[in-house]
Every structure is written in structure tokens, then in C-alpha cells.
Amino acid sequence: MTEKHGGSDLRANITVARPVGRRGPGETYLVNGHKWFASVPMADCFLTVAQTEGGVSCLFIPRRRADGSLNGITVKRLKDKLGNRANASSEIEYHDAEAVLVGEEGRGVRTILLSAEYTRLDFAVGSAGLMRAALSQALHHNDHRTAFGAPLAQLPIQAPVLADLVLEWAGAAHLGFRVARAEDAHDDVSERLVSRLLTPVAKFWNCRRVAGVTEEVIQSIGGNAYIEEHDCPRYYREAPLNAIWEGTSNMMVMDVGRVLAREPKAVEPVIDEIRPAADEHPLLAAALAEIEELVADPEDTARYLVTRIALATQAALLVREAPTVVAEAFIASRLGGGWGPGYGTLRGLDFPAIIDYGRLG
Fold this sequence. Notes:
This protein has helices at residues 108-144, 159-184, 189-221, 232-244, 249-262, 267-278, 282-294, 298-321, 324-335, 351-360, and strands at 16-19, 28-39, 45-52, 55-62, 73-78, 89-102, 146-147, 150-151. 54% of the residues lie in helices and 16% in strands. It has two domains: 10-106, Butyryl-CoA Dehydrogenase, subunit A, domain 2; 113-360, Butyryl-CoA Dehydrogenase, subunit A, domain 3 (Up-down Bundle). The strands form two sheets. Strands 1, 2, 3, 4, 5 and 6 form a six-stranded antiparallel beta sheet that branches. By secondary structure, the chain is of the alpha+beta class. The mean pLDDT is 93.
């Protein structure tokens, strides 16, 4: 999708596709142009977007032409990335590459995003998984390392940090798998709306939070976690990619705005799911009331609105699925006051019980 001058604005792309004969879905086109990011360049086929007479369109490009010869795809170079090194990313050029039009001309962005929706879900769930992997490293180290006569996990200065990380992972995991459940029930109208709204919300929030979690885990372990033979450096390099791939944070916020503008009812099943928990927790009730007010004008609230939807949904899911001590700690910290920009500022909570939930996770 991405081109050097277009970036996230796919309609600014200049790669072109011209029909060999007839125009329309399923017909053969020749594609010419350059793509700045093409991941998995060894794949057997690609979905790409290109300009046609009808506008930006989606095309299926196989590695080989119908006669068995290699298609007109040239890998110019591999990207030297910060992380994600085992997954090759490249710059490619199309030179009369044979392609088949997928969907109608001019509907390419919407068509290719049908595929991207699953990838966004993958990154939301994957970010929760990356948090889990990092958290497991932190818990193991802090349970087995002693200082001042006690395991690190029991120290008053460290227990709030570990508990905070557990809450972050718990909220992310429940949010990611709630979206996955909605995808599995896509034939249900209500669940389809949940998926349409919460996919970009979960992709935005989980992917934004995972980098901070991995960094805090490194600090909770110390110098050993900064050594390349430890797992944490790889987690740390991998984390920022999740927020970039298949749409940056701003793109996710814009997508939520588009959903609310085109399908205002998409927020209703999400609100209905939050409301039972909100009836029992005043802080969550206040957050829900604020969301209902903000959705009327999403353009002016942008990231704040998406953040509140993410936190309120996570809180409601934890009330329903997690131990009471975990749900109440999440609500008190994420929706109440006094939760700092970093981790470990929790006060007056049952830290051992929250940490135990993380150990069992």
C-alpha cells in the first residue's frame, strides 16, 4: 500500500494499473510503480493498491504469470529495520506486473482494508501477548531475586510496579480477545458493529501501551534485561512496530471517527456492554457518560475519545471476567485520579493479590 510520497494517504499514490482488455472485477491489469514498504517479499502473491481509470483500486498480483514465468516484480532492497528482523520488509517495483482486479475500480482502499482489519486485530492481540511475555520475565526475576532480605516482588517500592504491569496486560488481553470474539460472530449484526468500532480502538490502545510495558519490564529486571542474550531487547525493539504497521495511532483514531460518522449505531452495542458494570462502579459510570457525550462530535475529541472507549471497555470486561480485586484496581487507577504517567504509582491496593493474578495468567 505505502508509497514514498503518499504514506498513509493511499489516494495520493501514483502506481498505476491499466486493463489488458476489459475493465472490471476479475479482469487482468498491468501494474507499474514503486512501493516503499512491501513486507514478506518472498510471498507467492500480493494485494496492492494502484490508480485505475476509476480511482484507487485493489489488485491481486501473483509471483508468477499465467505462463509460469516470474511476474514483473523487482525487489530493490531490503529494509534495515529497528526490530522485526526475521520478517523481511523491502522496496519493490512493478514493471508490467500481471494482476487481477479485486472488487470494483475506485473501491481499492475499502477493499484492501477488509484484509487489514484482521491484521489490526492480530496486532492488538499480539501486543497483549508481547506484554504477557515481558511480564512473565519480570515476575520470574522479581520472584527469585532477593534484596534487603525479601524477594523483589514483595518490596514496597517494587510491588506497585509489578501490579501496574499486571493490570496493563489484563486490560489489553481482555480487550484484544473481545474483538476476536466479535470477529468470530461476524454474522451477528451487533457483533459486527462491535468489531468495526473496537478493532481500531484495540489496535490504537494496546499497541501504544506495549512499548511502555516492555521498557518498564527492562527496568524491573535491571542490566541483565539490556543484554542481547536476554529476551527483553527483542521485545523492546518489536513493540513500536505494532503501533505503526497497518495504520499508525492517528490512522486508528481517524478510523474510529469514520465509523462514528458513517455508522453512528456502532457505539451502541459497546455502550450496552459497558453499562451493567458502570451501574456498579461510579468511576466507570462517569466515563460512560462522558463517552456518550463525546461521540456526538468525535472530530474534536479524537485521541481522548478513543482512549476513554478503550479504558471503559477494558474496565467493563475485567469486572465481568477478572477477580474483583483486579477489576477494582484497574478502575481506580485508570479511571480515577492519581495514576501517574509511568508505572508504580498505585496506592492502597492489594498488590500481592493483583500480582498473583498475573502469575496465573
